[in-house]
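Fold these two proteins, one after the other.
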Amino acid sequence: MLGETLNAPPAPERKMGTRRLPRHLLYSIFARIGGSGLDTDAFEALRASHRGGFLGKAIAYDNRQKEIPASLIHSLRWHPVRLVSFLESPYYYGAKKKYLDWVASRELATGHYDLFHSWSGDCLKSLRVARARGIPSLVEIPTWHRDRGKIARKRTRAAPNAGWKENLLLPRERFIEEYNLADLLVVLSQKAAETFRVQGFSEDKLFYLPRGVDVERFRPGRRPTVFRAIFSGALIERKGIHHLLEAWHRLELKNAELWLVGSVHKEAKPHLKRFWRDNIRVVGFAKNPETCLSQGTIHVFPSQCEGSAKVTYEAAACGLPQITTRESGDVVTDGAEGIIIPPANVDRLAEAILHLYEHPEIVERMGIAARERVAKNFTWDHFRTRLLNGYGHALQMRA
């Protein structure tokens, strides 16, 4: 059994007395509290511990919410690492992650905490302190195992005389040691779990925690009169934008549109130029993606690697059938709420789009099923309940 089973009925948060919970939690994350993306995940996680009365402190790079008292959140917004912000991204972000880890490790060493929750890449020093002090730890994996399901290669360490810049980077060995030090590893999808299984990790160390969605914010809209396929996410090759553009170019569909909702990265521009059609609309980054998703017919997201893509939850909540990959997460079951295709397979992608284009009755049926599935399995209430179960599991492992 992999942690929390997907369709197990969640116990309401008010029944927390039935599970073992910590008294003082320390939470750290290389993100903000409140916002979009991981910022939302962090906020909902802290909601669970704050409502449960056991949030000791959270350490993050900013605080953009007002529900949880600011006194419980150590914001690193004005941090000394800004002095090296002129460095290239890998060095600067590596320095910021190591600074977060240093702050959290000092807090763990001096505070009275009985559970530590952090994220892969953010917490090596902290996990060492937690292990030395006997504090149970839980580490979330935002995507997959560092080796992406491949058999571990020979470790390579930085040369002893590596320069100061190189020492800011996050080497593979850092992640591997974090995996081994943590008591519990949180994986966001079954695909992510597989990448740890092949490395020999036991089921007991893996806890399944799919994400959530605000089903009041993301709601179905009226179906457009045209067939409108929507891609929502950064326009990068990892998310399969080049494969979608090629498939759309091949199909030459009448009375159809493709909306691209997300920031256009440099690597996508040659593909846009090569496969451009006049029925493609580049919307760009959308602060409120529900506005676009609620106007769609289907959502297409042929990503090659994700943890559990939040947009798949959002599109499902908006009642959109999805053409996606198993690599994108577990929101869609093939043939029920959408169509699962192999990654990087333009032929299968084009076939799936054409199938839904030609069968509006299937679109309608799948859209209803998609909305129903997230409402029953993937609200933020479900997420928080599963997380509390994860905390109980981590504590039990050290009992």
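Now the second one:
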Amino acid sequence: MMKVSRSAYYAWLNRPAKLITAEQLNLYRRAKVIFEQSRNSLDYRELRKRLCEEGFQVSDYGVQKLMATLGLVVTQRVAYKVTTKCKHSDAVADNLLNQNFNPVAPNQVWAGDVTYLRTGEGWMYLAIVMDLYSRRIIGWHIDKRMTTDLVSKAMMKAYNLRQPPKGLVFHSDRGSRYTCKQYRRLLLNYGAGACMGDVGACWDNAVVERFFGSLKHDWLLKVPQPTREHMRNNVTAYMRYYNLERLHTANGDLSPVQYEQSSLRKVS
């Protein structure tokens, strides 16, 4: 039935099992744990970076072979639509960045945006504030209503955490929550200036959009989100993972927190 000859079967039966060393076994275990912690989102390059950070000596090809052996398959992302709109009656700031997302020090340029998150109980809305220097999320707020208070609370949390000097630039799109008087007044009180991307140009806030893509397609969409509370807990878990563990090419393959700590050591 299996179309295998008797001699081939007995040859296979008598063949000694392949043994692996304790070091290989440890490598397999750590690779599987790291991959599962990322919710099956790390490709072989990112997985190799994490393994090398832990002291394992492994090549790109070695990690590809390892992933095939362990059955570690990356779940592909899908595109999503950005739907933020601007009220024509609100003030719009100039685009000061022009897609230059690499300030030379912390608390020089922050960026923010709002995204939609679907649960079994209805929509939730997440506003974030990112320090573009390290790509660290320094403020965020999630709610079932998308109001100016949503983005204001994210900014307040970021400001209370960092206490930036005056002259900070905050970059966003031209959504009505960022162009309204209430939010402009908040920035003015913090001594911060507004900067806004052009209409219809999602790449003008590409770093934040990339973060939302990772949050949704590497994390949230991997598991059911039946309730708003479940979504809130999952977002909290990802913020911790993203800031403390997720490696960034722009940071020299360090997490945002590691990159900031490394910068502080260089200054001291």
